[in-house]
Design goal:
The complex is a heterodimer of chains A (285) and B (291).
Chain A lengths: L1 E5 L7 H13 L4 E5 L14 E13 L10 H5 L5 E3 L4 E3 L9 H4 L8 E14 L2 E8 L7 H14 L5 E5 L6 H8 L3 E6 L3 H17 L3 E8 L5 H9 L3 E6 L2 H8 L9 H20 L1
Parallel strand pairs in A: 1-8, 1-9, 2-7, 2-8, 9-10, 10-11
Antiparallel strand pairs in A: 3-6, 4-5, 6-7
Helix pairs in contact in A: 1-9, 4-5
Chain B lengths: L1 E6 L7 H11 L4 E5 L8 H4 L2 E16 L9 H5 L5 E2 L6 E2 L9 H5 L5 E15 L6 E6 L6 H18 L4 E5 L6 H7 L4 E6 L3 H17 L3 E6 L5 H13 L3 E6 L4 H8 L3 H4 L2 H17 L2
Parallel strand pairs in B: 1-8, 1-9, 2-7, 2-8, 9-10, 10-11
Antiparallel strand pairs in B: 3-6, 4-5, 6-7
The chains are: A alpha/beta (285), B alpha/beta (291).
Chain lengths: 285, 291
């Protein structure tokens, strides 16, 4: 089972929940935790694990061979303006390239072969029952989706489908998070009981619904704001499966990079509720 | 005209609360731009009255006309995004997977494939309760061009600023280090980095500053919730000193940040006397530094 942990808004506790749920479950069974927030991967900061593999990941982009008739076919075939034909040469902007291969394969002179271009790394760590895999985008790279896809591909190739997977998603509602949710069986949306939290939760709910994925909500920092998030979930018929209390002790542990499942009993209790919910759902399905 | 962009790398550090406070504290000649188009929240504090609304078309998606399609399979073979479905021998496009590259359209021998514009969102020009115009947007679900929409929001804000002789543009920037935040900071006069003293906060600050430095934009730093972890705060201060980032202010952890949101107010209006003072001083510092 693959569980994606997502939220519209950043900073609501995606990483906290992903790491702690993964470690909590790993007390009894093997778990794979993947940090797919490749722009700002933070899960690893909360883990001590041994590095097993560190792989540079590439995108395929065209490179001009240096000789052609400058017919401009490639420029016309690129919708992202990643290939520009100048008076005496062809310029490629690899950061804008989406690797569709059109310019390369439609070039009548085969003057734009596709070559690998570094976009980031995928790292694999192991600690007892937990396999942790993170994607990390190089600074200055613009496109997160190809690296997310490659990180998921790495996991699919390495691990049995039956092992529980927790995907720490990027924030927002655009392509990067879709790429993650597409690959999940269940989505947990984590939010805060605040107006910003509610607004961004509504966007996230629209996103999961568009993908037709089963989902439920976890409220973090429960008690800090108002009850609009709860009212919203109730009228929408959305299950709230856990409420992690607003507690300065939790904030402090988090700030130090410490885990909560083994330090804060109330958090362990909420994680247990999530576990029960998830596995009863899985049993039904 | 000065363009001041507030970013944080990490979400939840207080970026919107602080940019909204700056929007309140700034002189009347200010335009507000919410560039966090993926999860825009500024409008919750600004009570916008929309005066202009436009659709944002940017990307395209392929459509196969089944009456013309001969099932030759070429589109399926060239698509790198698994966007062509051929269930029961009927070829169709899976919109969610389609990148809009138009490769299939070009190779289709019978012109059965056309590209249609995709509605990627909306953008708005609004009047706000602060009597300062605001440009904001809403990205469509699952769309990709948030960087382009960010650029559009900024360009509209710049045009308004030029037309009405405004001195300041205050930008609530996008999170992360990828395309949307690159679009948020490009062309900025000054970047305000908002960080929090947590392991994630420091990690993300370093990554996003790496980006800011590449653009050569001067930057200042606000440490929010500085008192939740004095050691980490010290670590952030050292990082700022090593990199010649001006430390603008340190703001204590205060749950009234949430109370302000609930009332639809900025912290510059609702915060305690101490927080109001800190925010006012922060804004004055930003004005000096960005001159």
């Amino acid at each position: 089972m693959t569980i994606a942990i997502a939220s519209g808004k950043g900073g609501t506790g995606k990483t906290t929940l992903s790491v702690n749920l993964a470690l909590y479950l790993a007390q009894k069974q093997p778990v794979i935790l993947a940090d797919l927030d490749v722009e700002e991967p933070n899960s690893g900061l909360f883990l001590t694990a041994d590095l097993k593999e560190d792989l540079i990941r590439y995108n395929m982009v065209p490179r001009w061979s240096g000789q052609c008739s400058l017919c401009r076919e490639c420029q016309a075939n690129c919708v992202w303006n990643a290939v520009i034909v100048l008076r005496d040469r062809v310029m490629v902007y690899p950061q804008l390239c989406h690797s569709c291969y059109a310019c390369s394969e439609l070039c009548p002179e085969k003057a734009l072969p596709m070559v690998p271009y570094r976009m980031g790394v995928v790292r694999h760590f192991v600690s007892d029952n937990l396999n942790f895999v993170e994607g990390r985008l190089d600074i200055g790279q613009e496109l997160a989706v190809p690296l997310i896809a490659q990180t998921i591909k790495y996991i699919n190739e390495k691990f049995d489908k039956k092992i529980v997977r927790i995907f720490d998603s990027p924030p927002g509602t655009s392509c990067p998070v879709i790429e993650v949710m597409k690959n999940a069986d269940f989505v947990i949306l984590i939010t805060e009981p605040t107006p910003f939290g509610l607004n961004d939760l509504q966007l996230a709910v629209e996103t999961v619904r568009q993908l037709n994925k089963p989902f439920a909500v976890v409220i973090n920092r429960y008690g800090i704001g108002d009850n609009q998030v709860e009212n919203y979930c109730q009228t929408q018929g959305i299950d709230i499966i856990a409420r992690i209390p607003n507690d300065k002790a939790i904030a402090r542990l988090y700030s130090q990079g410490k885990t909560l499942f083994d330090n804060v009993p109330s958090v362990a209790h909420e994680l247990q509720r999530i576990e029960q919910y998830l596995f009863s759902k899985a049993g039904k399905a | 005209m000065r363009e001041i962009v507030v970013i944080s790398g990490k979400g939840g550090a207080g970026k919107t609360s602080i940019s909204a406070s700056f929007a309140y504290l700034s002189p009347p000649e200010t335009v507000i731009a919410d560039c966090d188009v993926d999860a825009a929240d500024m409008h919750l504090l600004m009570k916008p009255r929309i005066v202009q609304q436009e659709d944002f078309y940017s990307s395209q998606e392929a459509v196969i006309n089944p009456d013309l399609c001969t099932g030759c399979d070429l589109c399926y073979q060239v698509c790198r995004f698994d966007a062509i479905s051929r269930e029961d021998g009927i070829y169709s496009v899976i919109p969610l997977n389609c990148e809009g590259c138009a490769y299939c359209e070009k190779v289709c021998p019978v012109q059965a494939i056309t590209m249609k514009a995709r509605l990627d969102g909306q953008w708005f020009i609004s009047e706000t309760r602060l009597d300062k115009p605001m440009v904001h947007a809403r990205l469509g679900i699952g769309t990709e061009n948030s960087g382009k929409l960010v650029t559009l929001v900024k360009n509209v804000a710049r045009k308004i600023a030029e037309k009405y002789n405004k001195d300041f543009i205050i930008v609530d920037g996008a999170p992360g280090v990828g395309c949307p935040v690159i679009a948020s900071i490009s062309g900025a006069s000054f970047v305000v980095l908002v960080s929090e003293p947590t392991v994630s906060g420091i990690h993300d600050l370093k990554r996003v500053y790496d980006l800011v430095r590449r653009f050569g934009i001067p930057a200042g730093l606000i440490i929010n919730k500085y008192d939740i972890n004095p050691e980490k705060t010290q670590e952030i201060i050292s990082f700022a000193q090593q990199n010649a980032i001006f430390l603008i202010s340190q703001i204590p952890y205060d749950e009234s940040f949430v109370q302000a949101q609930i009332r639809g107010l900025t912290m510059a209006e609702y915060g305690s006397r101490q927080i109001k003072k800190l925010l006012r001083q922060s804004w004055e510092t930003v004005m000096e530094l960005s001159e």
